[in-house]
TrEMBL record:
Keyword Hydrolase (UniProt): yes
InterPro entries hit by this protein: His_Pase_superF_clade-1 (IPR013078), His_PPase_superfam (IPR029033), Mito_Ser/Thr_phosphatase (IPR051021)
Pfam families in the cross-refs: His_Phos_1
UniProt-recorded name of the protein: Histidine phosphatase family protein
Keyword Glycoprotein set for record: no
Keywords: Hydrolase
Organism: Kribbella speibonae
Length: 217
């Protein structure tokens, strides 16, 4: 069987105006990942088009071919559809800072925002179902390019990984909300491709990180 390793990007710049770049800790995570993948000789290396995907691939020692199907959903659009005032980053930061636990307040707001998106609310360029469709389609495109016994590395985000795993395990998108929040930075999910189609054989493996580099955002 062929194997596809779906790798979540290293930690991005959470809370910054420009989220789409690795943090200093993220760079350390990607370097640690490089040690883990040192002996892997993939036949294909893919990534989404986001900077954090490509930075992770590069620091891990690979040059990736870009497939936008592996891009994360537009979290800013999802937030703004839920709270239009948050179109201004400064307004969101100031609002969340009013409480004693701004990070917890953000997570609660973001959970509500993604639930609205999942429930089919309006105001989105890409619906939740369309996002899950393109995530699955990207993995299937990759699988079609692999021969027997060949391997692909894919540098992507937690959302697409959760979408693919949900569909392969349950046949639908119902597990996404449970899987997405627990996907760890640089964690590795293995999907095999054989006569029976695609099968998830491991999810969210992160033993290479150790407690010192473990992050979810």
């Amino acid at each position: 069987m062929a194997a596809i390793y779906l790798i979540r990007h290293a930690q991005a710049s959470f809370g910054a105006r420009d989220y789409d770049k690795l943090s200093e800790l993220g760079e350390q995570q990607a370097t640690r990942l490089r040690q883990t993948l040192a002996e892997v000789q993939p036949h294909l290396v893919m990534s989404g088009s986001m900077r954090r995907h490509q930075q992770t691939a590069s620091l891990a020692g690979f040059t990736a071919e870009v497939d936008p199907g592996y891009d994360e959903f537009d979290h800013q659009e999802v937030i703004v559809a839920h709270k239009p005032a948050y179109k201004r980053h400064a307004v969101m930061v100031a609002d969340l800072a009013k409480g004693a636990r701004p990070k917890q307040a953000f997570q609660e707001m973001f959970t509500a925002a993604t639930q609205r998106w999942m429930d089919g609310g309006d105001g989105y360029t890409e619906t939740f179902q369309a996002f899950c469709d393109r995530s699955e389609a990207a993995v299937r495109r990759t699988a079609e390019r692999l021969g027997k016994g060949e391997t692909a590395l894919v540098f992507t985000s937690g959302g697409p990984i959760a979408a693919v795993v949900s569909r392969l395990l349950s046949g639908g998108d119902g597990l996404w909300a449970k899987l997405n929040p627990v996907t760890i930075n640089t964690a590795i999910t293995k999907v095999v491709s054989g006569r029976g189609g695609l099968t998830v054989v491991s999810y969210n493996e992160h033993v290479h990180l150790g407690a010192d580099l473990l992050t979810y955002r």
